[in-house]
Every structure is written in C-alpha cells, then in structure tokens.
Amino acid sequence: MQGDSACNAVARSGLKSRFTDSQILSVLKQAENGVPVPELCREHGMSSATFYKWRTKFGGMDASMMTRLKELEEENRRLKKMYAEERLKADILKEAIEKKW
Fold first, then answer.
1. Most distant pair of Cα atoms in the chain: their distance
2. Which residue, 36, 44, 67, 87, has most beta carbons within 10 Å?
3. CA distances from 58 to 12, 38, 69 (A)
C-alpha cells in the first residue's frame, strides 16, 4: 500500500523521472571518476542541466540516503497539505464566529 501512495504522489506532481535512483547515482559516480559531462549526457540522453541539478541535489549520497531524502520530501508534502487544510478550517470557523455577532 505504501508504494501506491508514492506512485500517486508522483503522478499528481507530474514529475516522474525517466531515470531510477540507481541510474542517477551511477551517472554521478561516472562523472566523479572522470568521464566528461557532455559525454555522459549524450550517452544517457539527458541535458547537462539535468546532470548538474542531480549533482546539486544528490551528489555525495548513497542509495539509502537518496531513499530517505525522497521519504522525507513526501512526508513534508503531506504535512504541508494537512496544515493548509487545518488553516482553511480555522479561517472558516473564525469567519463564521465573526458573522454571528
């Protein structure tokens, strides 16, 4: 069931990556080992902007850290949604109370 919620979150955000976490880590590792970035981008069919975005976000991480980051991002998204819903309820109640008097 937990996997379903992660898939739904990705589908809602519209940001499904063509690359798996292990592929991203592999590309970053190749760059660390001296493979030129333009060559990597050509080989994997991605832009250099994508590579540098990955390097900024995932550079120096291993697979478990990457998984944990994604879990925390999902939890943060869920908590922000919960907060927004509660804030809306509070605003509605406040407005209703002000109109009664």
1. 72
2. 44
3. 23, 19, 9
